Structure formats: structure tokens, C-alpha cells
Description:
It contains 7 helices and 2 strands. By secondary structure, it is mainly α. The longest helix has 30 residues, at 85-114.
Amino acid sequence: MAGMQDQLLQMAVIFGTMHIVKRAGLEDPEYAMLIRSAYAVATALMIAFTFYMKSLIQKKNDTTALEYDDPAPGNQGAPRIETTICRYDLAEIAKLQKSSLFTIGIVAFMHFKFGYIQPLILQTLLPMLNLYKSQLFQIHILGKPATDSLKRPWIPENPFAALTGGAAANPSEVAAIENDSDGAAASSSAASSPGAPAAKSKSKKESRKDK
């Protein structure tokens, strides 16, 4: 449910921003420098937060062992990952920084090549919102315990799980359900099999009486 709420909030921010941009006429070139400055400040602040969190992680140097299966799709047969809390969080910080740099490149290309203003405005707001909701920010900046949804490893939630009746089933749970089904079928078969000979013997007795 939290994943769905996050998606709805993000969509509300996107459509609300687009409406405000059109309503206030912010696509006018005279606002371009102001919007560029706001985007630059927000982006610099977000990148600064990632480096600050990185320094906090390195300072804590939590060497608690962390062992888990690779949650990436199609990696069911991959070997089990063994790492530490510190190395795991640093890897997540690196992913966040690479993603941010890639987004900056795309937004800059769209703005300077095609003159789009809306991507600048959206990327002034969304990255900071996503950073605030991230597990890294919640744990290392807000000081929340790494439990429940903040427990490592962090697997992205399926925002449509609530619409399809819940999250996808765990493979082990699926196997257990299949085994239970097979056991139930076998029990049902075994329960019905003794009745078959009885019915057969009964039919033989009736045929003898008729004779």
C-alpha cells in the first residue's frame, strides 16, 4: 500500500506542476534563467546529501554481515550475496549518484537542445522528494531503525501489487502451496481407493444372489 501511495503522490506532483507551469506561464523564456538556477540549486543540494550520507556510512563502518539472494528479476539461480551493512549502503549510494548524473544529462539535453522547461521544474522537485523517501535518507539522516520496510536488502515495491491482490508470492511459499496441493490430492486419492474394491466386492455379491 505504501508503494501505491508513493506512486500516487508522485503523479500528483507531476500533474500539479504541469498545471501550475501552464497556468503561471512559466514556459516563457523570460523565466528560463530563474528556473535553471532553481534546478541547479536543488540538484547540487541532492548530490551534496548523497556525499554527506556516504561520509556517515563510512564513519559508522557497520561491519555487520548481510547475506541475501539477489532480488533482481531473472536471477533466481544466482549465488547468494554475502556483504556487510557498510558495503551494501555504499553500493546503494553509488547507484543513487549514477542515476542522478544520468538524469541530469538527459534533462540538460532536453532543455538546451529542444528548449523544454517542464523537465527542469519537475526535476527540481521530484529528486528531493524521492531522496526524502529513500531508505538511505530515512536511516542515515532521520535516524530511523532499519526494520520493517527499511530492513535490508531493499527490494523495490510493485506499486500495482495492491490492485492485483497483494505482493507476488515468495517462491518458497509457492512451492509449499504446491506441495500441500499435491498432498491433498494424494490424500483424496488414497481415501477414495479403498472404497473402489468395496464397491467391486459388493457388485460381485449382488451378481451371485441374482444367480
